[in-house]
C-alpha cells in the first residue's frame, strides 16, 4: 500500500486554526503541535510495511497571505522525523479544494501508476501505530474502501483499492460521506480501529490523555506530540476542555 500523508506548510493561521480560535491555545502553539504530529505520523508510516508518500500543497493553493515553500517545509518535517529521506517520496498536490487534491492523488496512483491500494493518512493523528497501518493494508485485500474513524465524525485514514467520486467527499461528517460515496459506486466498505485527531479539541484531549498513558507504559506512540503538549503545560480539564497547568 502507498501511504499518502497530506502535509500543509506549518504556518500560523493555516494549520489547526480552529484550535486557536476555540481553545486557550495560540496560533504559535497549534503550529508546534502540528509539526510534532506530522513527525509522529511519518515515523509510524516509515515503521510500517507501507510506502511513504508525502503529499505537499502546491503554492497556488495557499492563501495569498501565506508565503511558503511547501516542498522544502515538508522535507524539513520528514527529515526531523526520519533523518534519511532515501525511501520517502514527495509529490505535489493538485486541485482547488481538499477533496479535489486528495481525489486527484488517489486516482492518479490507482489508475495511472496502477498501485494495488492507496491509503490517505492524516498528519494530525499522532497516536497511529504501524500495526494499524499494516492492518488497514490487509483489510484492503478484502474491501474496496477502508475507513478509519476519528474525532467528531472525521476520518484519520481512508484507504482505497478502487477510486470513488471524490467531489465534496470530505463534507461533514466525513466518515459518513466517504462511506456513502463508496456504497453509491457499489464498493465494499471496511473499517480500521478508531484513532483521535488533534484537529479538534475533543481529539486533542484524547491524544494528550492517550499519549501520556502510553508513556507510562513505555510505548512510543505520539511521543513527539506528547512532549510538546507537556512543554506547553497543557492538560485535559474535567469538562473535557484543554486547560493550562
Quick synopsis:
The protein is an alpha/beta fold and 245 residues long. It is built from eight helices and nine strands. A seven-stranded mixed β-sheet has the order 3-2-1-4-6-5-7, sandwiched between helices.
Average pLDDT reading: 96
Distance between the termini: 42 Å
Taken from the alpha-carbon principal axes, the silhouette is globular
Proportion of residues in extended strands: 15-25%
Structural class by SSE content: alpha/beta
Number of strand elements = 9
- H/E series: EHHEHEHEHEEHEHHEE
Largest sheet: number of strands, sense, barrel closure: 7 strands, mixed
Care to describe what's here?
It is built from eight helices and nine strands. It has helices spanning 17-22, 27-47, 70-82, 98-112, 130-139, 174-184, 201-216, 223-231; strands spanning 2-7, 51-56, 89-92, 118-121, 145-149, 155-160, 189-191, 234-236, 242-244. The protein has a seven-stranded mixed β-sheet, with helices on both faces. Strands 8-9 form a two-stranded antiparallel sheet. A hairpin with a 5-residue loop joins strand 8 and strand 9 (242-244). Helix 2 packs across helix 3 (70-82) and helix 2 (27-47) packs antiparallel against helix 8 (223-231).
Blueprint (SSEs and pairs):
Blueprint: E1 2-7, H1 17-22, H2 27-47, E2 51-56, H3 70-82, E3 89-92, H4 98-112, E4 118-121, H5 130-139, E5 145-149, E6 155-160, H6 174-184, E7 189-191, H7 201-216, H8 223-231, E8 234-236, E9 242-244
Parallel strand pairs: 1-2, 1-4, 2-3, 5-7
Antiparallel strand pairs: 4-6, 5-6, 8-9
